[in-house]
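Researcher: Next sequence.
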Amino acid sequence: MAAQCLARQGYFSIILAGGETPRELYRQLRYIATDWRYWHIYFSDERCLPVGNLQRNDTMAATTWLNYVAIPHAQIHSVPARTNVNTEAADYAAILQHAPGFDLALLGLGEDGHTASLFPGGEADEHSMALAVAVTDAPKLPTRRVSMSPRCLSSSSAVWFIVRGSNKRKALEAWLGGAPLPPQAIKPHTGVDIFTDVDLEGNFTGS
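Model: Next structure:
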């Protein structure tokens, strides 16, 4: 996909998932043949912690992948670290407003059915016009986070969910069965692709 986008439009813009699931994927991406100078990196969500904190998603991406390739620093668009989560969300929304477009969004799925930092019963409003949302009461630490909104994630040309581990089976089956979980609010015009090692029970038509 990156090669096609580079040939067609001169850049490749990708939204990265956080958490543990994509860590090995990011390590492998160091070795692909591509022109890193024209990649743009965005983050689906971020924990409200100081720059460089090991729990930040951009730190994980940097130490496993981005520090090893020649993407210009100005094209790695991290969520700004601020003392106020609402300010962080507003500042990140301003960055996202100037994005050239998103070619690919990588997302995960939590055991509770969350994706990015959109948690069940929280900020996953597909009708909101916001690009980024402040999360103040995430059910897992740290409780303050910034997440791309469903609208923003849905604007990506492709959305890939990477779901690994048998502990995700119930959440994945619930989502595919129509439960009102946050992934239901992410609706790119091409639909989503799910890559999983989970052994699913039942028949699903997909999302």
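Model: The radius of gyration is 16 Å. Helices lie at 2-9, 23-29, 57-64, 85-97, 150-154, 169-176.
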